[in-house]
Amino acid sequence: MSAFTWPPESLPDGIQRSGATDEIAAAVLVPLFLQGETEEPHLVLTRRRADLRRHAGEISFPGGRRDAGDADLRETALREAEEEIGLERTRVSLLGELPPTSTLATKYVIHPFVGTIPAGLAWRLSPREVDAVLELPLRAISAGRTRTQMERRGFTFETDAYVVEEHLIWGATARIIENLLERLREGHFGGIASKGW
Asked: Which secondary structure element, helix H or strand E, spans residue 174, and what is its range?
């Protein structure tokens, strides 16, 4: 279950906060695949269920808080992706890690792991938390960068976001995507960077 989406009352045995900032360690998988003859890069995201207590209906990467049984945060990301969308860890080729990203409101520090997966996988959604899996072209995501005004908990604010069709991506997920796009422009992550997105 994606535990970084709400502030827990207490942490299970063996779970540590990540340093002096009192943030809690979490990890997400940033899955990429190449689609069709043109091998256009696509990014896989999830849309959270609309009836959840926190972050209802928001778009995120599969992931969550590190469990005591996870050997490391990379394993956390792979386990959570398997639990949330049925992505078997054997289908993921990890390419590297993006800089950690904090969730400003819920005190988590998210460690994003980038990996490639085969195109055309069938998803098995966790009925407790995932409403849909989104497979969005990287080109459309990059082109959809914007500033938008939002209202949350009675506060209105302006934030960086990505808009692709009816999908609004903001917050920590948008910051992770920005880091991903920057690394791809710099030529990181091998063949994905050279696909002309």
From this structure: helix 171-185
